[in-house]
Design a protein that fits this description.
By secondary structure, the protein is an alpha/beta fold. The protein contains 9 helices and 14 strands. It has a single domain, classed as 4-Layer Sandwich (Metallo-beta-lactamase, Chain A). The strands form 2 sheets. A 7-stranded mixed beta sheet has the order 6-5-4-3-2-1-14. The protein has a 7-stranded mixed beta sheet with strand order 7-8-9-10-11-12-13. Helix 8 packs across helix 9. The structure holds zinc ion (ZN) (2 copies). The site of one zinc ion has 6 residues, from helix 2.
Length: 262
């Protein structure tokens, strides 16, 4: 059975480790290699358990540790062709490292099948990922998107576990101290998902079979974990769905959250 370790989440860095019988993959590596390896070690995961890294997009909060981690022996790195070009331009790839372009067909490792989907974000060619482990469980990662497109929605449907962005509270953002241009960027279709947008998507997911939900990529300036959680739980209550009965919910802080055993 797979285990999901949310290591880091938010604008200071994002990284998730999904493990299946001793081996696993990183989705993003947005902290230093040292921090990511230390965080894995705290969970008794040795560095040679990392078999591949899947990059969502080139923003630094998703690739900070890439240069070093990609140089570890036996680690394959995947990203969209557009992200690879952007990473090359920004010199964020290790010198001898080849990144494997991934397209909508996805790829299969010994123990997992990974299928990407497009996100709507102000980057070159961002992706979210759906991972099916050999026991048939499906886990999806959807953060850094301004809207839930039809493509995202169909990728997330039927997943057992979904890591979903709950970036900001719209009122906090609007009344906060960010410059106007940045507020407009975050609120745009290529920005980040609000608590309300996240919750509306989550209602549909819980109704279609998702049982575990991780609220991710919370803004430290424009959100509170309690607020993101309350927004979701209140809305789910209206739909007569009970926490820990119909679903499990975990709000991720900057240092991730509890691991989830399926
Ligand atoms: Zn981003
Ligand atoms: Zn991000």
């Amino acid at each position: 059975m797979p285990t999901l370790y949310p290591l880091f989440s938010g604008s200071k860095g994002n990284a998730y480790f999904l493990r299946q019988s001793g081996e696993g993959i990183l989705i993003d590596c947005g902290r230093s290699a040292k921090q990511i390896l230390a965080s894995l070690q705290e969970q008794n995961i040795p560095q040679n358990a990392i078999k591949a890294i899947f990059i969502t997009h080139e923003h630094i909060d998703h690739v900070q540790g890439l240069k070093k981690l990609s140089s570890l022996a036996g680690v394959k790195v995947y990203a969209s062709a557009g992200t690879i070009r952007a990473l090359e331009e920004k010199n964020l790839i290790g010198e001898k490292k080849e990144i494997i372009p991934i397209d909508k067909k996805g790829t299969e490792l010994d123990f997992m099948k990974i299928t990407p989907f497009h996100i709507s974000h102000d980057c070159a060619d961002g992706l979210g990922y759906k991972v099916e482990t050999s026991d048939g469980r499906k886990t999806a990662f959807a953060t850094d998107t301004g809207v839930i497109t039809r493509e995202i929605s169909s990728a997330l449907k039927g997943c057992d576990t979904v890591v979903l962005e709950s970036n900001h509270d719209v009122r906090m953002l609007q009344n906060g101290s960010y410059p106007y241009i940045l507020k407009r960027r975050i609120l745009s279709d290529s920005g980040h998902l609000s608590n309300d947008q996240c919750t509306e998507t989550a209602v549909k997911l819980l109704k279609s079979g998702t049982t575990r939900l991780f609220l991710a990529h919370l803004s430290e300036a424009n959100n509170f974990p309690e607020l993101a959680e309350q927004t979701a739980v209140c809305r789910f209550k209206q739909e007569k769905m009970k926490k820990n009965v119909d679903y499990k919910l975990c709000v991720l802080g900057v240092n991730g959250g509890k691991r989830a055993i399926y």
